[in-house]
Structures are given as structure tokens and as C-alpha cells.
Amino acid sequence: MMMNEIYVEISCGQIKFIREFFKEYEDESVSVKLTKSEKIKSVFLVTTNLSSDDTVRHLKNVFKETPHGTALHYAMRVLE
Predict the structure, then answer these.
(1) CATH no. for residue 65?
(2) Prediction pTM value
């Protein structure tokens, strides 16, 4: 199975909660590593066999299950 490496940028006023959650996150579909972090943005390298769209959808669904997941407003996009 071919693994994709996808860079995902997440922007949020309270980025530390997202950064802490995804910093070393891993499940059966994705492996996530923090690569860069600024004031309100973090970039993560996601290793997965999902497509770009499915990767973003999966990460959003995973974060939605956390205590901050429904409270925080954030944007997530794939960097080309």
C-alpha cells in the first residue's frame, strides 16, 4: 500500500490546543507530526493512505471528539 505524505495547515486563535493534540497523533488511518508552528498556524506532516480530502475530513472528525473540538473555530487545509 502506497503511503502519502500530506502537509496540512491548521489555523486557529487557540492553536496550542490543536498543536498539543496533533503533535504526535497516530491512529489506524494517519500518523501526524508537527513540522512548523507560528502564532496562529501550525503545519503537520500526515502520513496516510487516505486522499487529501479524506485526510482533512478524518482529522476534523478526530478533533471534533476532543473537549475543545466543538468549541474552537479553526481552518484546516492541505498545502500543495
Answers:
(1) 3.30.70
(2) 0.92
